[in-house]
Fold each of these.
Amino acid sequence: MLFSELASFFSRLEETTSRNALVEILAELFGKTPPDEVASTTYLLQGRLAPFFKPVEIGMGNNYVADSIARAYNTDRAGVLRRFDRLGDIGAAAKELAEESGVAPPPERSLEVSSVFNCLLEIAGISGAGSIEQKVQALSGLLTQLDPLSALYLCRIPVGKLRLGVGDPTILDGYSFAKVGDKSLRKRLERAYNETSDLGLIGATLWNHGIEAVDALSISVGNPVRPALAERLPSAEAILAKLGTCGVEKKFDGFRCQIHKLGDEVRVYSRNLEDMTGMFPELAEGALHQVAADTAIFEGEALAYNPLSDEYLPFQETTKRRRKHNIADTAQELPLRLFTFDMLYVDGENITPLPYTERRERLGRLIRPGDTLLLSEERVAHEPAELLEVFDDALQGGLEGIMAKKLDAPYQAGARNYNWVKLKRAQAGELQDTVDCVIIGYIYGRGRRSSLGVGALLVGVYDPERDVFPSITKIGTGLTDAEWREVRERCAPFVSEEKPARVESLLQPSVWVEPAVVIEVLADEITRSPVHTAGKGEGKQGYALRFPRLVSFRDADKRPEDSTTVAEVITMYGQQGAKPVPA
Ligand code: AMP
């Protein structure tokens, strides 16, 4: 396929405000894509050159992209940046100059998608002395061979601003519609996605070898597995009634990490499947010394912990480790420990189908004693009192609650179900748990708040079935001035002129924001609401959070698709009558 044709599809996707239309356009696109370009087209749709977990970066910011544009269209960096300032989009600046310069060829003489993709991969691979000059030159060379619309999308990719608003489940639906005309393949594709996290791999397998080959894709070292997640129940009694005798552990509030070890190679992946190996070197080092297997995949929660005082540091402290500079110094000041709690794979064997007790027992044998990797303590509870003892112990240590685990459950990648159940401390008159919401818009402030630029936030939750973000509440109080400013700064790159395609809201904020910034919100209650669209069906009201307040920014470890789901909100609504566990 010509890159100019792909660019026209991008343009149609960008203009669409309906999720169904997104799927239709994607199905049309994949219907026309040759099998050997399905993977590259998929990554490009995500604005990337590789799956999310592979840190392949082009390594060019606005200034260098501007240099490439200037060189391609015979102008200078300042001229390009002036247009960029006026248009707010480096791609639009490139398009204008391409149109005016007369250098750009017509769309039908544009390059193939695979040529553009490979060239971008080469640019990403250039390093060392003189690399910037080579990158600028290579990108400008590409631009001179592309039409104006292609130039627009090409220039957005290095600066991370492609933003087509297409989520992973939407791409899976696009595959299914392209292949069979409906979404009947979605479940099978999703299973493969949960175990490999690589959409391009799934697309290429489907196009080249068929759906049976996709069914054969499975967990492997080097591909992060989408994590299993926990449900909520309101009390120890409810947990025992649901799970029977169960394992109980403290719930640590840090970064969830999935460690992959392949011989001397160790990789650390975050909950949202990012490669964190460089940021958390002591965990990789710890795994090399303490893991008694050649290959293994296991999970734990990483947090700053003081073993002398048995003190767990709060998330706000641990989150300081999520940084790109001075890593060695901060690792010294705030070393992380990994409280390991589950295991998925060892020496060639996928052990996710085994019951939890057996995986746990193997984990005990996998982790050698040492300072960095610790086994999370586990107790088997038969009675509520036993469960509450662990709960009290957790609160004493400054933690937020416990996790209960069903003893005979397999590890189900990407699933949130009652195999794991969390029980958190709650104050009377508050919801039992916080809700992770994504910002979808904001409303300008009045009076004193007008200087902050934001007066209230419109936030949503996630509906994974339909891959949309319906609204659930407005947050207008409880933020400090600094937090309002921070909100505005974090949202700035995602501001959208129109309602983003995957956002569902009856309310019209002053400014729409693409779903990207995740915040943890505490509320008093969940109510039914005619105004909010979360859980709203035909003739049925939606759900809303009452008296919501910001607890923390969670975009360090959560993607918008990791927000609380509509189904969870409905379950939490149903549990509200139950007596909460006292603080
Ligand atoms: P939440 O993010 O509130 O849904 O809680 C689930 C998260 O708790 C998991 O994704 C883990 O990051 C974290 N967690 C903390 N302690 C444990 C534990 N002992 N077992 C499993 N997950 C844990």
Amino acid sequence: MEKPVILTGIRSNGELTLGNYLGAIKPLIKMQAMHAGEYQINMFVPDLHSFTTPVEHNLLYENTLNNLKIFVASGLDINNSDTYIYRQSFISSHTELTWILDCFIYFGELNRMTQFKEKSDGKESVSVGLFNYPALMTADILLYDAKYIPVGEDQRQHIELARDVAIRINNQFGSIFTIPEEWNQQLSFSNLHQGIRIRSLKHPEAKMSKSIDDPSGTILLTDNPQDAAKKIMSATTDSLGHINYDFKLQPGVSNLLQIIALLSDRTIEEVTIEWQNQTNYGELKKVAADLVGSLLSELQGKVKSIDQSTILDKLTQDEESMRAVAAAKLYKIQQAVGLRQK
Ligand code: TRP
């Protein structure tokens, strides 16, 4: 019996932030430790998704490899035989299936995607790629019969689209695709991913993000550890004068509590009990700053010791295996729609 597939994307554009580390990298590594053995785990780099909004193209190729290095330095086990790592653009079935799916996805479905609306809002020119992004994502998922796709709430509509499209095509052509689980099932499967949203240190009501210009609010995993600690020490808090975990009233303080909990492997409840109603924001910042400083020094040390060729070898090998899997699935739909002989 083949193992059920868990599939997720590892972003490749731009540098990774502390928010990516705590919200995505760590949960994925935990997921691998929990589920390898029982499941096949596809972790791929959606490099074709990375320039639906403009990027520095001359950095993209290297960024992909550097980001994978960071995943490995953070504990991703690339020798695990249930884990496959590949770059989307190295497997041409992704784009070929996208075109076919495009003809079974409605304009209105893509037009009401929240992420598209947010990212295109107020822009003078918006690429067709940004609009079509969810169709490519649907292809990423359906090519490998993925059942579980651990992603954050912001990706919910995209997962629901993949599910709707799989059902639509199976209804018309017979059973071609595995139907991804419903969102609630996805949630209970991957509760690791929920609720972790690291905020900007400067504007703690917003997410920490590389795509918004906010250098003092954002910690990059490549930041000098002392500079990162300084950013934490000058984080925006509030004037209430006591520590509580309450993102509505005290987003800055709550963000720090969250960072402390995640970096010391404790629950937010434990950390909140320890700090509740204390008044010294400086102490709280100092603890968070020390934890972030040590994380960065340790991680950067490990990254230096990783040989890029082991990552390239793994990619090349897995891309070959997955190319065959994806091509077989593509062939089925090509037959179904009349492009290949049945
Ligand atoms: N859109 C995802 C994100 O922004 C990345 C992604 C692309 C993805 N294709 C995917 C995630 C397929 C899961 C499955 O995080």
Amino acid sequence: MAEVETSRDGAVLTVTLNRPDVLNALNAATHKALAAALKDARADDVRAVVITGAGRGFCVGQDLTEFRESAGDIGSRLRSTYHPNIKAIRALEKPVIAAVNGAAAGAGLSLACACDLRIASDQATFVPAFVNIGLVPDSGGTFFVARLVGQARAFEWLCSGRRLTAAEAQQWGVVSEVVDADRLAARAAEVAGELAALPTRAIGMTKRLLDRTPTATLDDQLEWEAQLQAAATKTEDFREGVTAFLEKRHPDFHGR
Ligand code: T3D
């Protein structure tokens, strides 16, 4: 059985972590398969990506059985396996949705938070499990969580290891929507389909701009906006958007 499965529905690629017996804990093979799936996601005809988990978990981070004897060289492992996949998600110039079907813990929480938005099942839980085993958050956990919930709440949450319900995660702004467990896949597909029909190049450039905001000066941000706006005006979708507006019809964007 593949550690990661992918499926296509039109312009939407769904990536399913597939180690349900261990709530999709990450081992070396899973990192490798996820990297391959994220490479497939770069194709121009993929215009939205959904990441989810098989069974009752989303992803519970590092497979702790690999720590039984010794942790090994964690720093090197993070750099060579976790970091490339987190960076690959941010580098995708298209929307990436985490469909959080169950527990998102440790680096699995970081993975969910690295996505552009999160839709959760009412069965999902959000657990910054690192502190429970004496580790610090990694895989971008501090970076993404602080941006989502603010510094003070991030400190409280990450240092307590507190398990948030889906409803609490929504209140805190970690997830945008909570749906009944049996509706999650359909709702994620619906949202992804809607996003995939938008002008993908403009969405990708908006993602790049937003990623720069935490450290940018206003002058920098104005300049990047000007540069990417110039690039956006060269897309077919910009021409189609303006034409459709003037012709009083719905635009038909193709992501070019
Ligand atoms: O480079 C590096 O390697 C370092 C990177 C580190 C990054 C990290 O992610 S560190 C954090 C690792 N993750 C955790 O510490 C989470 C551990 N899991 C939990 O705390 C709980 O499982 C949950 C709160 C997430 C869910 O609880 P619950 O009660 O719903 O499920 P459960 O019964 O604990 O788990 C179900 C099974 O999955 C169970 O196996 P069993 O008893 O049915 O055979 C459990 O052992 C297994 N499982 C859960 N998490 C992991 C795991 N197996 C391996 N690794 C796990 N992380």
Amino acid sequence: MRIEGKEYKTIWFENNRVKIIDQTKLPHQFIVKDLKTVKDAINAIKTMEVRGAPLIGATAAYGLVLSIIENNDQSFIKKSAEELISSRPTAINLKWAVDRMMKKISGVNSAKILELAKNEAKEICEEDIKFCKNIGINGLKIIEDIYNKKKDTVNILTHCNAGWLATINWGTATSPIYHAHKNGIPVHVWTDETRPRNQGANLTSYELNEEGIKNTIIADNTGGILMQRGQVDMCIVGTDRTLANGDVCNKVGTYLKALAAYDNNIPFYVALPSSTIDWNIKNHKDIPIEERNSEELSQMEGLDEKGNLKKIQIYPKKSKSMNLAFDVTPAKYVTGLITEKGICDASKEGLKRLFK
Ligand code: MRU
């Protein structure tokens, strides 16, 4: 998608380096950063220079490529794989991508290993683009239906950033929105700020602006009253891990939006590529929920009056704060799952129908 009119993807490989857009600096500074070693890739995932379930999976895949360039010894690669998987715990795409890479390269001791790894990482990225595009085409029908009934702007609420910046291109939750916009359907997006890291305000609003899509940033607790006032036609969010029973783990606060949508009879959709499905965990209580540094809550970053990026303390220094990064929305509150293969119920039967 576009930044200042120029087409970008979120990650690419060039001259034995991985190129990323440093998302910790957006929307104020656009910086393309080089990852030269597997440690750089791990650090980029941990510090959220790259973030969003599909993108951290792709970064981990390219992290393994960097690891092979450094040292193609199998024990070094295995250790890199373990460190990459544990760099963030909740999004299943990370393990999915590393496992897929390891299946290709484990036990390969010849010079072929680097080529194999590069091809597989590229394939993971290309597949994600294709899947996210299909999510858009499938989700477009839902927006079209609402528009055909309403004959007026479709108001869509989203939480966090499940946009193209969280994937390789298109995004998951935003892909149906981009497709609707390209098809001439008037859309407007309510963008949850998404405290504490403000991915909604800093990233979703930024990328929608760059594509010329109308959007309004709202404080995280505003969605409920907008729904009561009839100002939300539908919600679409992304997910970091969807269980085979349709329970959805996504950015903290998603659950409360789903409850409000349910109470107000507003469709609540979750968009995901199949790489985000965890077929193994049976109970959502077993999903590892990331707890991040409490300073993400107590400090905020923005531009000072001179236009420099500056971090400031916003809470009493003595106060304790807690920073759980994800929550789980039970399947019963989810109207449907928009996947690359079509739309299904958030249930075991629904997912089985699409993914045999
Ligand atoms: O902590 P983040 O910014 O990595 O969380 C991202 C989300 O919660 C997204 O909604 C999710 O990864 C889906 S991305 C298409």
